[in-house]
Amino acid sequence: MTSPLIDIHTHNKLIDSVLGIESFSIDKVSFYQKWPKSYSVGIHPWYIHEINVDQAIKQLTYIASDANLKAIGECGLDRAIARNFDNQYHAFIEQLKIAEKYDKPLIVHNVRAYSDFLGILKKEKPAVPFIFHGFNANQDILKKLIKHNVYFSVGAEIMKDNSKAQRILPHIPINRLFFETDEWIGNIEELYLFASKLRGIDIDKLRDQIYYNYKSVFV
Ligand SMILES: [Zn+2]
Predict the structure, then answer these.
(1) CA of 183 relative to ligand 1 center, distance in Å
(2) Predicted local distance difference test score (pLDDT) of residue 1
(3) pLDDT category, 159, cuts 50, 70, 90?
(4) 11, 28, 57, 68: most buried by Cβ count inside 10 Å?
């Protein structure tokens, strides 16, 4: 039997045949929110100036005990956006504490902040895995990150010729790899097919491996 497809991070609704995680930003959720059966919530660094971070952390702590909340995120650090970096850092560390307390992996947004994350991984030695979403770093950074409990998720960028995501994809260890649609309105299966060709791996083997990765992180 073929393994189910996994969409590790999406802002769209998952279709029934695909397993994965629907991601919500804390500033967009309400008290009366109807949650899907597998989701994540986080404080996104882009919206940090629009929210009361302490309040959001309290809200997130409350939600975190829900068994259907599979991960915290997306959350992270973004050095390319005009938001106070110290506030981003503080919010990320607080979310990491919640993740550790409730044993939930983190879905990590990173822009030009790999050295910050390497510092955090070394200092905090988190027990929960970091899943770097939209991964597109170079081999040097990949080598440094691999030493830690981290996974790498790639999206539709891999299909853009000579994109950074496409260039790094062949180097990501297959047991640390995930696929995501993120905001892309497309079928996750296209990403699997593309990657199976690029890496010269049988599509069913790839599906088995990604499903195995999913189970190792979430079950
Ligand atoms: Zn996203």
Answers:
(1) 6
(2) 85
(3) very high
(4) 57
Summarised one tens digit per residue, pLDDT across range 35-91 is 999 999 999 999 999 999 999 999 999 999 999 999 999 999 999 999 999 999 999
Ligand 1 center to residue 3 CA distance, Å? 24
The parent domain of residue 44 ranges over 27-183
Number of domains in the chain: 1
Q: CB within 8 A of 124, min separation 6: which ones?
A: 93, 96
Give the CA dihedral 3, 8, 13, 19, nearest 10 degrees: 20
Q: Is residue 7 part of a domain?
A: no
Neighbouring C-alpha atoms within 13 Å toward the C-beta of 120:
24
116: domain CATH number?
A: 3.20.20.140
CA–centroid distance, residue 65 to ligand 1 (Å): 22
Q: Does a structural domain hold residue 218?
A: no
Torsion angle of alpha carbons 127, 106, 20, 81, nearest 10°?
Answer: -160
Mean pLDDT of 127-132: 98
Pairing of strands 106-111, 69-78: parallel
Going from the Cα of 152 to the center of ligand 1, the distance in angstroms, rounded, reads 13
Residue 42 domain flag: yes
Q: Is residue 202 situated within a structural domain?
A: no
3 state DSSP class of 80: coil
